[in-house]
Amino acid sequence: MKYPNSLRILICICFTSIFLTSACSSSDSGVIIKVLPTSLGVELPRYGLNLGGTGTYGAEQLRSNIVANPGFESILDRAIVIVDQVGPRSFTDDTNWLARTKGFWAGGSFDIRSGVLAGRQGKILDSARISENGPDQFFTDTTVLGLGKGDVVAVSGEVDPAIAPNWWKSGGRISVSKDIPPGSSGQKSVRLLAIPSQTTEIIQYFDAISDRAGKLLLVNGKWKLAFWAKQAGKTASLKLYFGRQQSMPFFNAEITPDSSWKYYEFEFAANDAGPPGVLTLAMLASNDEVLIDDVYLGESSPGPGGFRNAVVETLKTLHPGFLRDWQGQLGDTFTNRVSDSFAHKPTRYRPGNEYQIQYGLSDFFALCKAINAQPWIVAPSTLSDEEWTKFGSYLHQAADEYGFTDVMVEFGNENWNTIFRPGSIPDPITLGQVSDRGFKLLRDGSGNDKRLKMVLGALFAWADNVKLTGVYSKQSDRLAIGPYFMYKLDAGTSIADAIKLSFADDDVLLGQEEAVAKSQGKSLSVYEVNFHTTLGTSNSELRNIVVTSGASGAALARRLMQASLVGIREQAVYSFSGLDSFFGDSKDLVRIWGVTRDLSVPNRLRPTGLALAMLNRIVAGKPRLTDCSGKFCTLMTSLAFDNGKSIALVSANSVAVPVKLDLGCASGESYTLKLLDGSDPMRNNEQQPQVSVVDQLVACQKGQIGFTVQPYSLITLEKTTK
Length: 722
Description:
The protein is α+β, with helices and mostly antiparallel strands. Among the domains are: 5-42 and 623-719, Immunoglobulin-like (Sandwich), CATH 2.60.40; 76-157, Elongation Factor Tu (Ef-tu), domain 3. It has twelve helices and 36 strands. The strands form seven sheets. It has an eight-stranded parallel beta sheet with strand order 25-24-23-22-21-19-2-26. A six-stranded antiparallel barrel has the order 3-4-7-6-5-8. It has a five-stranded antiparallel beta sheet with strand order 9-12-17-14-15, with no helix packed on it. A hairpin with a 6-residue loop joins β6 and β7. It starts with 30 loop residues before the first strand and ends with a strand.
């Protein structure tokens, strides 16, 4: 269904100046907002952001080195077993979610994390599914009698059925080798065995959804291809290719590797002016055996921590107070968490090919320092006692090195969520036992560093889960929730009603859960927040209008301010980048979650990103409350900062509303007014920039500043500094 332009008049846009009273406002009366001397009582940092994981196909290409698994490392498998049945030397899971093949875990290890045997470790001799679709059973080298039903066991293995994960292979025989270059931090290289009549090739693909998205990764400016290589004899050659489908290659060369390890680096100037198409890196061996390792393809001068410069520049614009590193790392190890990119192994906690290539913590911390954000890290729920202790020592040293004042440490991710069951602990009682053990060891390892804040996630939609999670957790400082909003949109909803629905969620449950956490001596934080419009019967077209229009930025700002007003301190918007996502049981896509449309260039912000950047210009310190008088106040949300010199205001009204801000300012004082206009739902930044933040200088008159806020819009006001 197409929505004609004539429908736009349903949302008032016929104003002569965005800061003057609208000619089509439904009433001459407005509101008066007075900044009170009353402080909110909590020191607010800037609003945070989920950095998210890096990828190769979509908009999440975060790293300067675009190659996934550049060191050809093997897969780490780690998972959580919730014990059902116990034998003298065996135990079974209580679900079939691990779903591994017979013998998959043989040669691996187990680590009991709860109950009377907590801390006991041993080897897994064999594993099998107890029936075709049943749970896994594990056979151990030592007795496990004493395990109880519901106890948690972490199982680990390194089966590596795939040779050089993330790389495509073609032609002759390919294997991995423990022969690595001098000084390499990794453990393996890749061996291409070619014969005179056959070539052997390894390939990676990037930017592979350009058919629906256009170019999400631009190859412009100075790039380089670098790697280590050697050959077994003297006749081998290695062809190198990097280019975009339907265009001339950016780089094309052929070399003869030496018989000993040698570092090769090729810099080239790229101009990505051709049509969209998949990017391909190919390395093709001929005539003999060639070994390759530690491949780099990307910007010649990477940003801090090895992140793309567009990523760093965009993050500086968004200016988050916290950066959360959730990347799906529930099956990771401490060693892998702190390794560099060439040693970093893909990790997996669920069956199949769902393994992730992640950035390490040292790179993440360097990025946090560069953009002046505090780190929020997600610690794998599978860590052993020894790993928790090492983690504490490492974080203490990192806080010193990078000058962090707060380091949020979250135990796993959404333990209540069955999607993550192979790497999480749903029961609040058992979760409390396992997380308390880990947090205690982390504190001990850090020397009881007060900068480390222990975080445990809970289910926002179920207040009892928040309460029970806090009751059974003694070591956590914070309970964290994900107060997403506007979950559902049904077919037949008008555009005007859909926009209105995006402002419908109230702050009642937020306030109740903050009070629960406070009564338990804890703080309440927000680990993720944004639209979650994935339910209901609406088509993707209407959903996309709602989640990408200018009003979406005001709706997100309102949700953040709602949480601040009930006393919630740390909040992290979800997420930095993401073009679209499937919704419901359909194969349709909705442009949801990413506050950037993509990272092809810096600062390609969606309205949600514009709103975050606006708020983070003024959010800091102890905010002041405001008082609103007038009939439009029920749909106004406001909060003042900087001793009342700055203010953020969201209007969820469907009409333009005249506003007088009573700041007690001196006549003639100059203020900068910024507007994110959400009055036209058909404007977005998906194909070209249509929504932007508009600035205007305004002057105080008799202690007040007057302006008109447009429908579904965000305004920030800050005192002009010379």
